[in-house]
Design goal:
By secondary structure, the protein is α/β, with parallel strands linked by helices. The chain has two domains: about 5-110 and about 215-310, Periplasmic binding protein-like II (D-Maltodextrin-Binding Protein, domain 2), CATH 3.40.190.10; about 115-205, D-Maltodextrin-Binding Protein, domain 2 (3-Layer(aba) Sandwich). The chain has helices at about 5-10, 40-50, 50-55, 70-80, 90-100, 145-155, 170-180, 190-200, 220-225, 230-245, 250-260, 265-275, 285-300; strands spanning about 30-35, 60-65, 85-90, 105-110, 115-120, 135-140, 165, 185-190, 200-205, 215-220. The radius of gyration is 19 Å and the shape is globular. The model is unreliable at about 1-30 (pLDDT under 50).
Length: about 325
């Protein structure tokens, strides 16, 4: 049964995409690559540098940028035909594929398991994940931290149903966490680092040993099938930003800070937990992603089984 866009919106309910202002809904055949980005990471650095525009201009392409609060919202826009390319964590593309979004995995960054965590207030009596039983936990539904919560609970001998889920986008999650409306918050960098520094949130469990926390670069089938040269230019530009950020996180933090409104020391902490080195998806990465998809199907969080290998781009990254 085909899943409608309305149904997909319901899958990622609890977080609403930012308005798609100044974004044309024309196809990639117009030689315009429409990129969805989040308020952190390689793509926002690439946007700030302005180097991609010059590289794409050399092959007669242009680029348009739209910001989203999280991966689920970005991929909802991809499903609706509003963007052609973007980067998200592990879980959003699984929800999107289950909703028949025309996505393709193009490349990925190496694991960064310390770049996401379950946080509790500094004075919380909660000392372990097992203590979350019966508690209220905030996280962005369909995001990478959704899987972190599932695996952390499993490791602690709890089920997903042992906690009360509160589906909140990052800004709303932070507000609820600070007010004490939730007992724990599962979040990724730089929001994670900001909470640790600004309000001394305490890390209960990060992803080490239980989740890889990959970042994936994804495109529409139209982009991948018809615009290979543009994709290669885009991935090469991302690789250059990766190398620069890895070699000088302080400079990268200084450049990123004004656009995200987060102090440089916080961003340095977050960037040091990030991974770098864009690559093709190999069999082991595909298998890890398949494990996540199978887990969500068993938990009835997605409506059907999906096969990750069916939507992986073959070729240069």
């Amino acid at each position: 049964m085909k899943i409608t866009r309305r149904a997909f919106t319901a899958v990622v309910a609890g977080a609403i995409a930012t308005p798609l202002t100044h974004v044309r809904l024309a196809g990639a055949a117009d030689k315009v690559v429409r990129i969805g980005y989040q308020k952190y990471g390689t793509l926002v650095l690439l946007k700030g540098k302005g180097t991609l525009e010059k590289k794409l201009e050399s092959i007669d392409y242009k680029v348009e940028w739209t910001e989203f609060p999280g991966g689920p919202q970005l991929l909802e826009a991809l499903n609706a035909g509003a963007v052609d390319f973007g980067s998200t964590g592990e879980t959003p593309p699984i929800f999107a594929q289950a909703a028949n979004a025309p996505l393709v995995y193009i490349a990925h960054e190496p694991p960064a398991p310390r770049g996401e965590a379950i946080l509790v207030p500094k004075d919380s009596p909660i000392k372990s994940v097992a203590d979350l039983k019966g508690k209220k936990v905030a996280f962005n539904k369909g995001s990478n931290v959704h899987y972190l919560l599932v695996k952390a609970l499993e490791e602690a001998g709890l089920s997903y149903e042992d906690v009360t889920s509160s589906f909140l986008a990052p800004a709303d999650g932070r507000a609820a966490f600070e007010k004490g409306a939730v007992d724990a918050w599962v979040i990724w960098d730089p929001f994670q680092a900001a909470a640790e520094v600004a309000i001394e949130a305490r890390e209960l469990r990060n992803g080490e040993g239980i989740v890889p926390n990959h970042q994936f670069y994804l495109g529409t089938r139209t982009l991948v099938d018809g615009h290979a040269q543009a994709i290669d230019v885009l991935i090469d530009a991302i690789s250059e930003i990766d190398e620069w950020t890895k070699s000088d996180t302080t400079a990268a933090a200084a450049e990123l800070s004004p656009s995200v409104g987060i102090p440089e020391p916080v961003l340095v902490k977050a960037l040091e937990r990030q991974s770098y080195g864009v690559k093709n998806l190999d069999d082991s990465v595909v298998a890890q992603q398949q494990d996540i998809a199978d887990t969500f199907f068993k938990l009835k969080l997605i409506p059907k089984k999906v096969t990750i290998a069916d939507v992986v781009r073959k070729g240069k990254a």
